């Protein structure tokens, strides 16, 4: 018997607990216990009869005895009855002893599954029960969104989370982030559990196609690759229109899944296509740059540029999953690595000082680096999914940086501009007496160690003027992110031009 904690699958009746539990147990080679079935076996009667003879209270007693026994065992996959974890003490006990996953299915989905379930004694009047139990189910920390997923996919997701996948909660549910060396080169083995056994469009670019795109597409039973020209210049509506054409040509419908395989440019463009084609089709983000792994693939922002400005057209589109394969970083050009590191340092400064440890920047620690850095993005987007408050902290250094990109006509790469911007923000924080001069020096040193610049010779007036057009400076009042200390940021409003110019 495995010594691992039991995995307990719970959720409303009809949410698929038994099927998912069975598949998961098979996958993990564990023993499976379906609580309702075990009670029937013990009582020698179907649940319907137990209810008829002993009433609900009698049934709950049998259920409680079994639950107490199961909580003492290890290595099982358990599917609970729909009402088993409603009692506070049983729920608390399971939450403490086991890994409890709640299958989250909407009322509409459940009603389509429950219409013929006369076998279930509580199925009549289930809607009132749903409303009464909803809050209790929602209080279980590990939720699994089941909408649009097969039982194999739900079981695959739970297995991945048991193996260390991260999870992002969103207003409409959530999605896993699989971080695993080699995951893209083994994707064929996981096609069914990732929902990739139907029609798939792998959207990538001409650089990544020969490196990873072709091999990935070949592994999937019914996939076609669409390779865009490489570069930000192609993150446009014209490219989007071409992708729509390719999708129509391949007969893509609402069940077709898009995999966005590439850096932020591919992720944003393919994500926008997934948000809009036939009013939205499933999207998997497979980021291949450090920046896209720790930043753009998580959070749901997708979009394209207009001639008038970057990212002016867009949408929120949550992916079904994010697949991060740190192995692909081996071919990333050094400049792109450094630029991604600027965002990693940003995440370190605003929330996770461990990321500032040079030991973690070594290629052999890429997986851990990405894991810690992406967790920061997850924490911020979970609290503020639509970017109305604290998510602004992720803009540390960015108002300074965007202005540099603008005044240099985008000759300075984004990550380099952000590094310079972070140092400006650090100096500003020092001038506001939040951090010490020694901290500023430390941040500068970190940038140099990575090979990132910390200042630039541009006209200060033009630089400031470009900052003042930032869309986040509402009503002309300055709005910048400063560091309260290493590991915590804050929004500062209404600083004077002199205060800001002093750190440029
Ligand atoms: N949606 C968001 O929340 C968000 C956040 C930050 C940035 N972005 C966007 O992301 C974009 C920048 O993304 P990026 O920095 O990933 O740039 P990118 O997508 O242009 O990729 C950089 C270069 O690296 C190449 N490349 C990618 N992966 C590779 C690999 N594994 N091996 C070899 N070459 C590889 C690409 O082909 C490209 O030439 C911008 O358009 C920006 O607006 C979006
Ligand atoms: Zn950035």
Please, could you describe this protein's structure?
With 504 residues, the protein is of the alpha/beta class. It folds into 3 domains: 157 residues, Rossmann fold, CATH 3.40.50; 155 residues, Rossmann fold; 172 residues, Dehydroquinate synthase-like - alpha domain (Dehydroquinate synthase-like, alpha domain), CATH 1.20.1090. It has 18 helices and 16 strands. The strands form 4 sheets. It has a 7-stranded mixed sheet, sandwiched between helices. It has a 5-stranded parallel sheet with strand order 2-3-1-4-5, sandwiched between helices. The protein is globular, with a radius of gyration of 26 Å. The termini are far apart. The relative contact order is 0.07. The model has no long low-confidence stretch (mean pLDDT 94). The site of zinc ion (ZN) has 4 residues, from α15.
CATH A-level architecture of the largest domain: Up-down Bundle
* Global Rg: 26 Å
User: Overall pLDDT, averaged?
Assistant: 94
Ligands bound to this protein structure: nicotinamide-adenine-dinucleotide, zinc ion
Helix/strand class: alpha/beta
Task: Measure the end-to-end span.
Answer: 63 Å
Biggest sheet, open or closed, and with what strands and sense? 7 strands, mixed
- By CATH, the topology of the largest domain is Dehydroquinate synthase-like, alpha domain
Spatial strand arrangement across the major sheet: 6-7-14-11-10-8-9
Q: Spell out the CATH superfamily of the largest domain.
A: Dehydroquinate synthase-like - alpha domain
Principal-axis shape: globular
Tally of individual domains: 3
């Amino acid at each position: 018997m495995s010594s691992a904690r039991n995995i307990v699958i719970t959720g409303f009746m009809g949410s698929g607990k038994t099927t998912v539990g069975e598949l998961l147990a098979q996958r993990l080679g564990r023993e499976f216990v379906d609580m309702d079935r075990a009670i029937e076996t013990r009582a020698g009667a179907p649940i319907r009869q137990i209810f008829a003879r002993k009433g609900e209270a009698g049934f709950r007693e049998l259920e409680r005895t079994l639950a107490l026994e199961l909580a003492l065992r290890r290595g099982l996959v358990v599917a609970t009855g729909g009402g088993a974890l409603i009692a506070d003490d049983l729920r608390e006990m399971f939450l403490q002893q086991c890994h409890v996953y709640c299958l989250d299915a909407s009322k509409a989905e459940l009603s389509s599954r429950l219409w013929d379930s006369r076998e279930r004694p509580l199925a009549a009047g289930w809607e009132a029960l749903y409303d009464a139990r909803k809050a209790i189910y929602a209080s279980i920390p590990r939720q699994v969104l089941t909408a649009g997923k097969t039982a194999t996919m739900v079981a695959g997701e739970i297995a991945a989370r048991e193996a260390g996948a991260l999870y992002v909660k969103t207003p409409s549910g959530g999605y896993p982030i699989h971080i695993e060396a080699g995951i893209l080169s083994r994707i064929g083995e996981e096609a069914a559990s990732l929902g990739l056994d139907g029609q798939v469009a792998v959207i990538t670019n001409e650089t990544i196609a020969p490196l990873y795109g072709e091999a990935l597409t070949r592994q999937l039973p019914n996939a076609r690759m669409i390779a865009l020209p490489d570069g930000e210049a192609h993150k446009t509506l014209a490219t989007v229109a071409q992708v729509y054409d390719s999708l129509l040509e391949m007969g893509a419908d609402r069940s077709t899944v898009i995999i966005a395989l590439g850096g932020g440019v591919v992720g944003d463009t393919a994500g926008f296509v997934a948000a809009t084609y036939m009013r939205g089709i499933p999207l998997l983000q497979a980021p291949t740059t450090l920046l896209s792994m720790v930043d753009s693939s998580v959070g749901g922002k997708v979009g394209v540029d207009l001639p008038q400005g970057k990212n002016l057209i867009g949408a929120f589109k949550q992916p079904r999953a994010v697949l991060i394969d740190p192995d692909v970083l081996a071919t990333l050009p050094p400049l792109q690595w450094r630029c991604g590191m600027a965002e990693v340092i940003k995440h370190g400064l605003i929330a996770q000082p461990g990321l500032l440890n040079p030991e973690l920047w070594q290629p052999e620690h890429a997986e851990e680096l990405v894991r810690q850095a992406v967790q920061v993005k997850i924490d911020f987007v979970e609290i503020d999914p639509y970017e109305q408050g604290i998510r602004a902290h992720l803009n540390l250094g960015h108002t300074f940086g965007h202005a540099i990109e603008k005044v240099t006509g985008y000759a300075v790469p984004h990550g380099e501009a952000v590094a310079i911007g972070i140092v400006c923000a650090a100096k500003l924080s020092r001038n506001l007496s939040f951090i010490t001069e020694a901290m500023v020096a430390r941040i500068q040193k970190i940038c140099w160690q990575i090979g990132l610049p910390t200042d630039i010779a541009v006209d200060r007036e033009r630089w400031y003027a470009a900052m003042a057009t930032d869309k986040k400076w509402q009503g002309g009042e300055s709005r910048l992110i400063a560091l309260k200390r290493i590991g915590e940021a804050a929004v500062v409003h209404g600083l004077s031009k002199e205060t800001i110019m002093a750190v440029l």
